[in-house]
Design a protein that fits this description.
Length: about 250
């Protein structure tokens, strides 16, 4: 069946990988301090390493806090919505306009979409492997929903952390902000969700077409067994000639 073709399992695998990538973005700082959506390398006088700030889905961490020899990391409590502009203003003295600060703070609440997209993508994966044509169709529909949510979340991430990145890199302090692992995993997840959704949907319709074609051949074969067509090697029906004589048809020729 088309549903179990190698192409179908490629699509299913894409959905699984996408859910894992979304999970990585979800568990970014402060859940795991070294995984960041945006990372800011701070300027300090340590000969060992620079301190850094990692921003993630539910908050931020400050890594390698001075004195650097102690290698101390501080991750702040997890919360839905936080204030990245205020964090950088306090740590690095970065200046933000009131509009930029309010926009960045407000957009952090939308990052709750990361775990939602992750969960929906995993449900799409389960539906795609757990049933036949109907399950694959449902899996493709759920994958489409996960893709839309992921696309929206990714756009918000770029808008939110683009504000922070531009202000940090443009204030002349020497600190360097750049997109990190969490941003690229959500981007890759968005691409894989689209490909997985398309492949699963394509193989679903291919399976339906194959089933209909098989049913059509079966019905056509039944015609030859109903006494009208070919039956037992030849047709054994009789006809009446205009003169009233009966004549047996043999082999359907006379």
């Amino acid at each position: 069946m088309a549903r179990t073709s190698p192409l179908h399992w490629v699509g299913v695998t894409f959905l699984l990988i996408a859910s894992i990538l979304l999970l990585i973005t979800t568990i970014s700082a402060p859940v795991i301090g070294d995984i960041a959506i945006l990372k800011v390398m701070l300027t300090n006088q340590s000969a060992l390493r620079n301190s850094s700030v990692t921003f993630g889905t539910f908050g931020h961490c400050v890594l390698d806090v001075a004195p650097a020899a102690t290698d101390q990391d501080y991750c702040y409590p997890k919360s839905v919505g936080y204030s990245p502009a205020a964090v950088m203003a306090q740590i690095d003295g970065t200046g933000f306009s009131e509009a930029a600060s309010a926009s960045a703070d407000g957009l952090t609440y939308a990052m709750i979409l990361h775990p939602i997209a992750c969960g929906i993508a995993f449900i799409a994966f389960l539906l795609s492997i757990g049933a036949g044509v109907v399950g694959s169709l449902l899996g493709a529909v759920v994958a489409a929903l996960a893709w839309i949510i992921t696309l929206v979340a990714m756009a918000i991430d770029f808008a939110l952390f683009g504000i922070i990145k531009d202000h940090v890199n443009g204030d002349g302090s020497g600190s360097n902000a750049y997109y990190s692992v969490g941003m690229w995993t959500i981007l890759a997840a968005m691409v894989l969700l689209f490909l997985g959704m398309f492949i699963v949907l394509f193989t679903c319709f291919s399976a339906r077409k194959e089933r209909k074609r098989g049913g059509s051949y079966k019905n056509r074969g039944d015609v030859y067994d109903n006494g009208v067509g070919y039956n037992g090697g030849y047709n054994n029906t009789t006809t009446t000639t205009p003169a009233g004589r009966t004549r047996r048809k043999r082999f359907g020729l006379f």
